[in-house]
Amino acid sequence: MNVVEAEGKALAEIAQVSSLPELEEARLRYLGRNGIVNQFLSEIPELPRQEDRKKAGGFINAVKGNIETALEKKDRELRQKSLKEIDRSSFDVTAPGLAPQTGSVHPLTKFREFVRDTFTKLGFEEVYAPHLEEDEYNFGLLNIPPDHPSRDLWDTLYLEDGRAMRTHTSNMQVREMRKRKPPIRVMTFDRCFRYENVDPHHSHTFTQFEVLYVDKDVSMGQLRFLSDLFLKAVLGEKTRTRFRPKYYPFVEPGVGVDALCPFCEGKGCRICGMEGWFEIAGAGLVHPQVLKNGGIDPKEYSGLAWGFGPDRMLMIKQGIEDIRYFYEGDLRFLKQF
């Protein structure tokens, strides 16, 4: 196929084109980098005489210009035709539109707001403590010296400068006692970190909630009241609680707070592991040494500390079997809330 034949074929094809995508295909076929016109241009250097090369170049460029003109003319025709079709089409402005997809608040964030509102009504103020913490606030001032065996329970992650990624929200206790004078009512809801294997019930990053109340004559009765009030608000009015003796170095006495399984009401089921009860929280009266470390006289004042894992409590409330769902960002899970 020579140049003249290629021009005739190109102009004929362009005249028959009926859409913009077809027109683009024709343009690439004839004027693209590997198109027919460029192939002719690449053969010019093979001509033996300078005069012939000059004539061939001028003629091929003229053909290229004719094809470009035809393409531009056809492009205008097709666009005008498209606009006319739009003008003729009907559009019902009263028809309902497509509803956009909307997001929702993360279940842990919802739960945080509920917990914050509940304890704010009881006079507690939300406070924060560092995630990267000095060893004394995370352990030492909480009655856990360097050689204390209970340190092994926290699986702590340390930085090279000696600071730790806090293992619990209790690192706020002495810091807040040193800032304030009794009565002290503070709460914190934040993340903690431990060197743990990830499984359906454990994670290296998790959330804790804790309250600290320091005043005159604070007793286990008030601790029981807080536990019952909050757990009934979360799990329902039928919820029963119990205290079991449990050891924590920074409280004395210490208790584990259990709640009756809301699904089987104590009979035993798959969700509660056939126990009938869930361990919900850890609590106790603040150890006198911790009060001293916070600058408070334990002979005049006493205090309580009460905390739980919101992840676990929400798993129990919603029947969720894997803690990792909260942190994976899977929309199939999050859209259920």
UniProtKB/TrEMBL annotation:
<dbReference type="Pfam" id="PF01409">
    <property type="entry name" value="tRNA-synt_2d"/>
</dbReference>
<dbReference type="InterPro" id="IPR004188">
    <property type="entry name" value="Phe-tRNA_ligase_II_N"/>
</dbReference>
<keyword id="KW-0963">Cytoplasm</keyword>
<dbReference type="Pfam" id="PF02912">
    <property type="entry name" value="Phe_tRNA-synt_N"/>
</dbReference>
<keyword id="KW-0436">Ligase</keyword>
<dbReference type="InterPro" id="IPR045864">
    <property type="entry name" value="aa-tRNA-synth_II/BPL/LPL"/>
</dbReference>
<keyword id="KW-0030">Aminoacyl-tRNA synthetase</keyword>
<dbReference type="GO" id="GO:0000049">
    <property type="term" value="F:tRNA binding"/>
</dbReference>
<dbReference type="GO" id="GO:0006432">
    <property type="term" value="P:phenylalanyl-tRNA aminoacylation"/>
</dbReference>
<dbReference type="GO" id="GO:0004826">
    <property type="term" value="F:phenylalanine-tRNA ligase activity"/>
</dbReference>
<comment type="similarity">
    <text>Belongs to the class-II aminoacyl-tRNA synthetase family. Phe-tRNA synthetase alpha subunit type 1 subfamily.</text>
</comment>
<dbReference type="GO" id="GO:0005737">
    <property type="term" value="C:cytoplasm"/>
</dbReference>
<keyword id="KW-0067">ATP-binding</keyword>
<comment type="subunit">
    <text>Tetramer of two alpha and two beta subunits.</text>
</comment>
<dbReference type="InterPro" id="IPR002319">
    <property type="entry name" value="Phenylalanyl-tRNA_Synthase"/>
</dbReference>
<dbReference type="GO" id="GO:0000287">
    <property type="term" value="F:magnesium ion binding"/>
</dbReference>
<dbReference type="InterPro" id="IPR022911">
    <property type="entry name" value="Phe_tRNA_ligase_alpha1_bac"/>
</dbReference>
<dbReference type="InterPro" id="IPR006195">
    <property type="entry name" value="aa-tRNA-synth_II"/>
</dbReference>
<feature type="binding site">
    <location>
        <position position="252"/>
    </location>
    <ligand>
        <name>Mg(2+)</name>
    </ligand>
</feature>
<keyword id="KW-0547">Nucleotide-binding</keyword>
<feature type="domain" description="Aminoacyl-transfer RNA synthetases class-II family profile">
    <location>
        <begin position="109"/>
        <end position="316"/>
    </location>
</feature>
<keyword id="KW-0479">Metal-binding</keyword>
<dbReference type="InterPro" id="IPR004529">
    <property type="entry name" value="Phe-tRNA-synth_IIc_asu"/>
</dbReference>
<keyword id="KW-0460">Magnesium</keyword>
<protein>
    <recommendedName>
        <fullName>Phenylalanine--tRNA ligase alpha subunit</fullName>
        <ecNumber>6.1.1.20</ecNumber>
    </recommendedName>
</protein>
<dbReference type="InterPro" id="IPR010978">
    <property type="entry name" value="tRNA-bd_arm"/>
</dbReference>
<dbReference type="GO" id="GO:0005524">
    <property type="term" value="F:ATP binding"/>
</dbReference>
<keyword id="KW-0648">Protein biosynthesis</keyword>
